[in-house]
Amino acid sequence: MEFDTIAAISTPMGEGAIAIVRLSGDEAVAIADKIFKSPGGKSLKKQASHTIHYGHLVDPKTNEVVEEVMLSLMRGPKTFTREDVIEINCHGGLVSVNRVLKLALTNGARLAEPGEFTKRAFLNGRIDLSQAEAVMDLIRAKTDRAMNVALGQMDGKLSRLIGDLRQALLETLAQVEVNIDYPEYDDVEEMTVPVLLEKCTWVRNEIIKLLQTSSQGKILREGLSTVILGRPNVGKSSLLNSLVQENKAIVTDIAGTTRDIIEEYVNVRGVPLRLVDTAGIRETEDIVERIGVERSREALRGADLILFVLNYADELTIEDERLFETIEAMDYIVIVNKTDLPQKIDLARVKALAGSHRIVTTSLLQEEGIAELEEAIAALFFEGQIEAGDLTYVSNARHIALLHQAQATVEDALAAAQAGVPVDMVQIDVTRTWEILGEIIGDTVQESLINQLFSQFCLGK
């Protein structure tokens, strides 16, 4: 498969020691050779693959020196895209890196689309679609655990398992074809149905195992939407600052200081939290504060976890009890804060309202109770199972949806076979399951979906 030559900046924009401009395509080496001058005047076209060269980029039209660079030359197919690849290491800086990119573009390269390098790796057969998606998961990983899951998927862990499932279904379909082609042999069907039941049962069970890891995998990939909830002045902003370990939110003794939503990502013992500090929920005549309270209620509706903060030095109010009712069906942890002050809250009543939900006491001012809170968050969602390194985690929402579809169709096949439906009819559900699993790794996926997926990648990857 031949493509034109693309170029893009592959490092974040801004000031830094080094920036990289990457080219990929049949003309990558020729374009680089046109603009690169080494001290010895050597031609890049004659250099060995996977070598690095010092020199300057020179505009061939004006002979103006554009940058001092180190240039890496890598010939396909032993590259990320399986094409010829040039990586130009220049000085980090907006002006410098843009001048290098512009020079490549004016000498024959085209600006790459978002994710186009990884898309070429997929289209050229170096990686499958699930591995390509794992590249972006790796870039976006917020914790070590999330990164390990992405690395496993990039390495083909999920791909190999999906391949095994599809192979089992393929063997079943082959057996069914024998039954259809040689109907005169009565014992063929007797042999086919047990094989079909055995293979499809194994496939279903493996799909169920994968789906059992999906909730944890999705958390690792996307983070938990975590809302800090409570009345004004109970310590919500202090909790945000303690977890983030920075003074992100203004903390005062004045109730209603937080007027708007504050969002931060934080890593709590391997659990990525998308932490939302909300305006204190109460009835108020202040127009600005009322808007903040309404935004708090909206954030609450989309939350995966609630950190419900109460004041140890205040009696429970009707508003507190209403908040307990609001979050009754959700996952939440109660945090009784300000234990450094004299107790006024009725802890027995708090326990009765919380039921089986965890209660943690803290003094955020004295930095007490944070470790217990972090342990409660990790235990609530991972229950110690996340450390199982031999598990294949499925974290991508697209993969999860397809696995649910595959489970449904393979169960239809099993039910039909057990009910005595002719095997050539059962074959339809088995074939559909095989196709759905193929969509995960890109074997049976439509071009429009491929374009949509890669458009979500960052430019230069």
TrEMBL record:
GO MF, one example: GTP binding
Quick one: which residues bind Mg(2+)?
Answer: 237, 258
- Per its UniProt record, what InterPro entries does this chain match? G_TrmE (IPR031168), GTP-bd (IPR006073), GTP-bd_TrmE_N (IPR018948), GTPase_MnmE (IPR004520), MnmE_dom2 (IPR027368), MnmE_helical (IPR025867), P-loop_NTPase (IPR027417), Small_GTP-bd (IPR005225)
Quote the subcellular location field of this record: Cytoplasm
What EC number(s) are associated with this protein in UniProt?
3.6.-.-
Q: What class of enzyme is it?
A: hydrolase
Listed binding positions for GTP are: 233-238, 252-258, 277-280
What does this protein need as cofactor? K(+)
- SUPFAM superfamilies of this UniProt entry? P-loop containing nucleoside triphosphate hydrolases (SSF52540), TrmE connector domain (SSF116878)
User: Where along the chain is (6S)-5-formyl-5,6,7,8-tetrahydrofolate bound?
Assistant: 22, 87, 126, 461
Superkingdom of the organism of origin: Bacteria
Annotated K(+) binding lies at 233, 252, 254, 257
Q: Does the keyword Nucleotidyltransferase apply?
A: no
Q: Domain TrmE-type G spans what residues?
A: 223-382
Summary of the function given for this chain in its UniProt record: Exhibits a very high intrinsic GTPase hydrolysis rate. Involved in the addition of a carboxymethylaminomethyl (cmnm) group at the wobble position (U34) of certain tRNAs, forming tRNA-cmnm(5)s(2)U34.
Q: Which PANTHER family match?
A: TRNA MODIFICATION GTPASE GTPBP3, TRNA MODIFICATION GTPASE GTPBP3, MITOCHONDRIAL
- Return the similarity comment: Belongs to the TRAFAC class TrmE-Era-EngA-EngB-Septin-like GTPase superfamily. TrmE GTPase family.
Quaternary structure and interacting proteins, as annotated: Homodimer. Heterotetramer of two MnmE and two MnmG subunits.
| Protein name (Swiss-Prot/TrEMBL) | tRNA modification GTPase MnmE
